[in-house]
Amino acid sequence: MPNFVWKGKTRAGALQEGVLLADSRDAALAVLRRQNIQVTTLREKGKEIRLLPRLPQGIDSKRVAVFTRQFSVMLDAGLPLVQCLEILGEQEENRRFREIINQVRSDVEQGSSLADAMRKHPTAFNNLFTNMIAAGEAGGILDIILQRLSTYIEKVVKLNAQVKSALVYPVTVIVIATLVVIVILWKVIPVFAQLFAGLGGELPFLTRVVVAASNFLGRYFIFVGLGIAALYFAVRAWHKTPGGARIIDAGLLRIPAIGMLLRKIAVARFCRTLSTLTSSGVPILDGLEITAKTAGNAIIEDAVMAVRKSVEEGKTISGPLAETKVFPMMVVQMINVGEQTGALDQMLSKIADFYEEEVDVAVANLMKLIEPLMILFLGTTIGTIVAAMYLPMYAILQKIG
User: Fold this and answer.
1) What is this structure's pTM?
2) Are the C-beta atoms of residues 30 and 36 closer than 8 Å to each other?
């Protein structure tokens, strides 16, 4: 029988390795699984087989939402948990997500809980997802929890799509305008500059500025491109630091129109997430911590964590939330009513519905505001360059006249 060299983890997470005699690879895997060992690599005669390939940074939220909805329907129909995972794994088109589902099924077959099995794959199932699954398993309402999860993910996907739709148009216009200006300065202006040099005389100030910009871009084009790329990556790296994230996110919230939109998005996300968690039986402290991490803005995250600290000391949510001065007073008052009536999750859901509609209106208004601003930006930029090129010709015609 061939020798199989293996590496893996025990259920406690301890790393182990060894050599095993078996008739085939499948036989070796079966022996190791009976020993409750999660195999990561298996090698026969120098040929290595990776069982847990490197996963991408994240699985698409839409794909996770479809998986969750189908999972809920199957459980509600009375299918066993392992059979549901097996069917979902077989029909999943994405190879990496299919491997994750199959690994979750394998762990569940070996005695692991569904939540613990999913926690091993944070690229697909985040803390919010796994905590709600754990609450559903503990309460015996896993199918209901999956329904709430799928609804939550679908609403989050819709909200993110609204944000992207608000950004696509201005970003596209700015990029196209920048490329047009670069091409004009790089290729067109030098032709006019040679023509003006042959005519002699002093050029108007605006023309000299445009020609100087063209000469600078022609000489240092590569350095300008590298500088812009370096600035972009430097800002991204700075935003990943706690201090940089607070400064940038605070600045974004102060931008007219855009800041109000971001605040409404944050409120909608906060209320939707906390409502889903509390209605599913997740403890309020855990719910606030998870909600803070999914806020998407460092200022909002700090405010929610401050509220969590106060709640841990025995206070209500609404009082500390008002002290942060981040959330609108209407939201604070409605949360206060929800706490007093014992219907906090329902009140949070209503607030989330209201602010999601407000995001729709805010996105539409922002688009109406951006369109004339973009037209003005394009007209001013291109018009300035054209005027700079025609001013010398106009001066020559005046002299001829």
Assistant:
1) 0.64
2) no
